[in-house]
Amino acid sequence: MVIAGITGANWTIEVFDISGRCVISDSGISSEGSTFLNYNAESLPSGIYMLRVNVDGVEDVKSVSIVH
Asked: What's the domain range around 34?
């Protein structure tokens, strides 16, 4: 995932399983240029997940599939 925005922007990322349980949560402050996030999903079972990203109050939610 790439978070591209204003340098110094506060970001949070959360991944929820189908039951609504948060299985991944992270946050930080973007550096100059783009911030690259790399997560290893091997520990999560195959399934549908909801990915919520918030950058300085602007939020987006996407559905993602993990298949092993």
From this structure: 2-66
Task: Please name the amino acid found at residue 62.
Answer: K
What CATH number has the domain bearing residue 59? Answer: 2.60.40.3080
Do the Cβ atoms of 49 and 67 come closer than 8 Å? no
What is the per-residue pLDDT across 10-67, written as a single tens digit (0 to 9) for each? 889 999 999 999 999 999 888 776 677 788 888 899 999 999 999 889 999 999 999 9
Q: Give me the residue label for tokens 């091997």.
A: 42
Neighbours of 58 (CB within 10 A): 10
Q: Decide if 21 contacts 44 (C-beta within 8 A).
A: no
State how many domains the chain has: 1
> CA-to-CA distance for 17 and 28, rounded, in angstroms?
22
Going by DSSP bridges, is the β-strand pair 2-4/34-36 parallel, antiparallel, or unpaired? antiparallel
